[in-house]
Amino acid sequence: MVQFQNVTKKFTTNITALEDINLEVENGEFVFLVGPSGAGKSTLLRLLAREYLPTTGKILVDDKDITKLNSNELPFYRRKIGFVFQNFKLLDDRTVLENVALPLHVRGTNDTEVAKEVERTLKLFDIWDRRYLFPKQLSGGEAQRTAIARAIIGKPEILLADEPTGDLDPETAWSVLQLLVEINSWGTTVLMATHNKEIVDLQKRRVITLKKGKIIKDIKEGGYTTH
Ligand code: ADP
Fold first, then answer.
1. What's the average model confidence in pLDDT over 204-213?
2. What's the gap in Å between 11 CA and the centre of ligand 1?
3. pTM for this one?
């Protein structure tokens, strides 16, 4: 379970990205974060990924305060987290296969196991026949499927997605969303920041609306515009 307790994040004295956030997300939930640009959605995800520390407050993941993790503990915590971005953030000089294999190589998984897991994941995501291509040779949908494959190959407990459909046409955006829903159905908690009203309205999942750094709505089976 994820808990934000009175979390405030100030970047400078004048910029308060999040203010006194209190939030609980159960294991296995699928949560949309919506709200205008600058509302604090990315900051919330990045705090959870421990890319930033909050200015004040606690962030508990499985009852452990991640703001207190030391440098030895941090890499292990990060294995619990997968992160997907709008602009994919793939390594341009590595193939699809190498990009997806990277997180397993980094953690020292043996080559046979890496090969097996990568093949299984690329086939599952329908990009096996693209495995020797470089990111610039892929369509937007293929690039995002590669990025999601890389994010989940290490079996994270929590998948964070920051505008993952932002650069995609509606049909491709929908197929990427279906992939995230499927990953969620395996038990992975998914938090997705998005501006995509149609997707949010059709999914009937929990919708948290942020505005100027505060949660202004939290609706169990909401839509983008539900009041
Ligand atoms: P959203 O994802 O909802 O668009 P962000 O979390 O990116 O919102 O931004 C929230 C606020 O924090 C904005 O005012 C933004 O300019 C500011 N902000 C975000 N990241 C930084 C940063 N690294 N340094 C300074 N200000 C930042």
1. 95
2. 8
3. 0.94
